[in-house]
Design goal:
About 85% of the residues lie in helices and about 0% in strands. With about 170 residues, it is mostly helical. The chain starts with 8 loop residues before the first helix and ends with a helix.
Length: about 170
């Protein structure tokens, strides 16, 4: 257990732990941010030029792997962001605590968008792709998914920026 000392070592340890958590959060969140940006600027326009069957097959496969693997950096980013915010607050490093808390809020909003809009679409596209069945609503589902990808990318980008502020101050 850490003891409070007169030389400020407790404060320094909390600061290092808060920054370490912020670093882990930046790296983890950047994975999700980069994925969302790629989807917004490359994948979305590329899918516009393929037929409906190809769209369902490709996106079903993409979501099959993404939905299995992306929770690791996503959850790690959210947890590390929360840890950074709490440790900065305990150390009374209010600027860091505010920046980390802002990042956490942005990530929670992203998570709501993902769970309420993207994930249900992902499951439908994956099921159709796995069954090798046509999905007449595939293009409409993808359009709905696409409708929030820019917002998702912006939220993740702002969270990464806020976490970088934690590291800089």
């Amino acid at each position: 257990m850490l003891a409070v000392t007169t030389d400020g070592s407790y404060d320094m340890i909390l600061d290092l732990l808060a920054r370490g958590a912020a670093l882990i959060a930046v790296l983890s969140t950047a994975v999700v941010y980069g994925t969302d940006v790629f989807c917004a600027i490359a994948l979305r326009p590329a899918l516009a030029s393929v037929d409906d069957a190809a769209l369902v097959a490709v996106m079903g496969s993409v979501h099959r792997y993404g939905d299995r693997r992306m929770p690791v950096p996503g959850v790690l980013g959210v947890v590390a962001t929360a840890v950074s915010a709490v440790l900065a607050a305990v150390a009374a490093h209010w600027a860091q605590a505010i920046a980390a808390s802002a990042a956490l809020g942005l990530l929670v909003i992203w998570l709501v968008l993902y769970t309420q809009v993207s994930a249900p679409i992902n499951r439908q596209l994956t099921a159709a792709s796995d069954a090798r069945q046509p999905l007449p609503s595939g293009r409409a589902l993808q359009a709905k998914w696409d409708s929030i990808i820019n917002a998702r990318a912006v939220l993740q980008g702002l969270a990464v920026a806020a976490l970088c502020v934690v590291l800089m101050i």
